[in-house]
Amino acid sequence: MSSGVAARCDAKKLVRSPSGLRMVPEHRAFGSPFGLEEPQWVPDKECPRCMQCDAKFDFITRKHHCRRCGKCFCDRCCSQKVPLRRMCFVDPVRQCADCALVSHREAEFYDKQLKVLVSGELSCLESMGLVAVR
């Protein structure tokens, strides 16, 4: 692979979204096959109550959107800030309890298993002569 192609594959840009800062590939074709698109947020007018505990939103009980599923929750039900690598967020983001659990499990998988899978895949490709041996 030429250095020009490699540089394009690694090129990323910082994007500000309603959910937070994201570091995304310059070109969608170079994105991760494991990536997730940001969800459509449930419109504020369609969620007068927390979608978990049914608390009514008011001046004191504020509405928050889970960055992973887009649903509306009160602070108690959506207080965890968890890394969300599959959406390329720079910082940990607010997630509901169900989504936070999934994100924690995914992070554990990526940290432990994906490195093994990727290194094994590269070894296989190297043995087939499809990539240069380092």
TrEMBL record:
Listed CDD domains:
FYVE_ZF21
Q: Which domain of life is it from?
A: Eukaryota
Pfam families attached here?
A: FYVE
Keywords annotated in UniProt: Metal-binding, Zinc, Zinc-finger
Domain FYVE-type stretches: 44-99
Molecular functions per Gene Ontology: zinc ion binding
Protein name (database record): Zinc finger, FYVE domain containing 21 (Predicted), isoform CRA_c
Write down the species.
Answer: Rattus norvegicus (Rat)
| Gene designation per UniProt | Zfyve21_predicted
